[in-house]
Amino acid sequence: MQKKMPKLWSNVKCVILCGGKGTRLLPLSLKRQKGMIDVNGKPVLRHVIDYWRQWTDDFVFVVKYKKADIYKFAKTLPINSEFVEPKKLSGIANGIYQAKNFVRDKFIVVLGDCVCRGSFKIPSHMEQGICIWEANNKEDIKRSYSVKIEKGLVAKVREKPKRLINNLCGMGFYFFDRKVFDYIKKTKPSLLRNEVEITDVIQNMIDNGEKISPIFFKGDYLNITDTEDLKRAEDILK
Length: 238
Known about the structure:
By secondary structure, the chain is of the alpha/beta class. The chain is built from 7 helices and 12 strands.
């Protein structure tokens, strides 16, 4: 059972990014959007929605590849659903920016290929936050992002780090307010992928005095990337 969402974060919208092609899941993703691939008899996206429905029934889907499948599926569920499509796929930060006209002051962002089973410890007076998991496998951190905490706040994040200073893995779940949109516009594309990295956006926020709280997660978590991850997802989502 989850704790009740702090009042400041109650009744917010949840933005789910689910527009990617999932090329590393070929051939399964050839005819289906990544989130529509079944795990334990349900699409990955259904597992994601079911988890976050404990706090909200208002969802904004950022779509692109095989978008018609997402439209059709979401409309069968007992949720409020809205959809937005970017002109082109250009990373997480750009996907978040597409939701600018659909959210209010506070909102949650969830990557549509990130699944979990467990609970969060959400700070009661959090302004903004990122979700963090204590990983047992360092490779989970290296393919995600690392997090450093100082004085109870997030001090540093690093995309796909080669060297690790702790076992804290940044998750694909974020609690933002509308200030994030300004920071996305100000952040330059990275040399890594020539797109605005969400970790660079978060680091710019921290460097400019924004308070980003760590939201600790206890349980199992997985960013589904390739076909081998599907078996891990089956075990997590039993």
